[in-house]
Amino acid sequence: MESVRRPILDVLSRYRPRDPAEAADAGRVRELVETADDPWSRSIPLHVTASALIVHPGSGRVLMRWHERQRSWLQVGGHGDPGETEPLAVALREAVEETGLGDLVSFPDDSLVQVVIVPVPARGDEPAHAHADLRFVLATAEPDTIRPETPEAPLRWLSLPEAREITAEANVREGLRRVRELLAEVEGG
Question: What pTM, to 2 d.p., does this model score?
């Protein structure tokens, strides 16, 4: 199981949490990865997911996706498929599937931007559980080529202030704040 754990532990080892709450979440994720046979497995109550905030650097806009289960506009992302072990690769695959954007690249590099444990409500036969979400930032140069995965999951390009206002999740607002910082750093040179 080392081959499943190592990529996540490598990403976490290079990451510095921004505050005590995020440090606690990162610690829980590290403990999960070190103790679970497969930290990506949906069969355990807390499992790893990977997601991304997608930006169009030229306009400073961010892409948000409606998540019916969470009843909120959120970032794209989700679960690893069987055999996947690299968090960034999972986030990228999910982003392409959910948006149709074929030119996505890490922005401004492949660094993790946020670690957060997100509660997920029960639905149907699936009990309530939590995602140990590893978040990245991806960029596109072709924002007009978005294509929602399904009609029930619309996509919207928004300014960062609009995105912060439209999401119901404080952790996503924090992620958007970090995106604003990254865009300012890249723009400032």
Answer: 0.95
